[in-house]
Design goal:
Helix content is about 55%, strand content about 0%. The protein is an all-alpha fold.
């Protein structure tokens, strides 16, 4: 069963589907790393997470 974070990301992806490129936007590794970071944010990787979310059009 998906976690709350995984469900939320799926919902956001559906909501902004027209703004995102391609069917497989995140690699599996990127998605796993992003979910891990969201569960336990590490300040040293904050810029990476923001860049990933921005790249996918989820934040500006």
């Amino acid at each position: 069963m998906p976690s709350a974070i995984e469900r939320r990301l799926a919902k956001i992806e559906q909501r902004f589907r027209s703004r995102l490129r391609g069917v497989h936007r995140y690699s599996d590794d990127e998605l796993d790393a992003l979910i891990s970071w969201l569960r336990d944010p590490d300040p040293s990787r904050e810029r990476w997470a923001a860049n990933l979310l921005q790249r996918e059009g989820l934040i500006r």
